[in-house]
From TrEMBL:
This is Cyclase. GO terms for biological process: L-tryptophan catabolic process to kynurenine. One of its GO terms (molecular function) is arylformamidase activity. Pfam families: Cyclase. It comes from Bionectria ochroleuca. Transmembrane segments: none annotated. Belongs to the Cyclase 1 superfamily.
Amino acid sequence: MTSKRPTFDELPLRKDGPRGNAWGLWGPDDQLGMLNLLTPDVTTAAAREIVDGGRVSVNLPLGHLTPPCFGRAPLEHKVWQKTPRIVFDDSLSINTQSSSQWDGFRHYGFQKEGLFYNGKTPDDIRDSNANSMHAWVESGGIVGRGVLLDYAAWADSQGLSPAIFAPTSITVSTLKQVAESQGTTFRHGDILFIRSGYVRAYNKLPAPDRLALTEPAVPSAIGVESSEDTLRWLWENEFSAVVGDHPSVEAWPVQNREYCLHEWLLAGWGVPLGELFDLESLSAECKKRGRWSFFFTSMPLNVSDVFIELLVEGYTNLR
C-alpha cells in the first residue's frame, strides 16, 4: 500500500505509460485500484452513517431498459416446471450492460496505447483473469461511505432544464455548487454518486421514444464533463469509486478524447465506474433527512473473468 499519494501534477507514475496513469501506486500486480482506499478504518467510519436503519436499493430491474443502449441484447428470462414435481427453475441470459452495472478494469482501456489498468494488454485480458472483478469480491466487495451530489434536484431548484438525451456536460464548478447547496463535504475514500436526472427522464418516456434512443450507433446522454478540471477534482478528493444514474458517467459521446474519463479512471487509476444506478429513491430519502451521505454496500458476482458487472446487490443505509 502506498504511504504518500502523489499530486495530480505528479502523474503519470509510470513514465513509459499513457498520460495521467497511476500505475504501480498500489503495486505492479494490484487489481483493486482505488478500492484500496476502502480500508478497515474507512469502512468503520462509514458505518457510523447508520442511525435509523433505513435501506434503499439502487438497482434498476434487469429488464428495465427496453431495449438496452449500444445495441446490447435484452434480458431473457425463462421459467419451467420440473414436472411431475411441484418445483420451478429459471435461467437468465443477460448482457452485463443491460441494467445497473459496474464498469471494471477489463472493460475500457487507453484506446491509442491499447493498454488497461497497470499496463495490462488485450492478450493479458483474454488469456488470464488480470484486472477481473473477482478480486473485488475476494476483498469483501465495495463497502464505504457514499455521498450523493443531486445535480437533478439542484437544477430543478435553479429553474434549469438541461438536455438529458444529449451530451450535456456537468462541470466541476456546477458540482461544487451542488455540494455547497447541500452542505456536503467529502472524506478520503468516499464513493461519489451523481444524479443527473437520466433515469427520471427515461422512466417518463413512452416505448417508441425509448426505442428511438437506441437507434443511433452511439447514443447521446448527459454526464460529467470530460476535462482536466474534472479529473483534477476527482483525484484531489480521493474518491474510491464514481457512480451515476446515466449510461456512461461522463457525457456521451465523449466531448474531449484527451480527457476521456473511461480511460483515465478505469485504465489509468483503477476507479470503478457505476452506471445506470437508480438514484430516485435515494434522492428522496436524502432530501427527507437533509443529509446526502450514507453507508453503501455492493457485492459483484463472483466470476473470475468478467468485464462489466451487473449491480446485483447495491444498498444504502441512510442516516
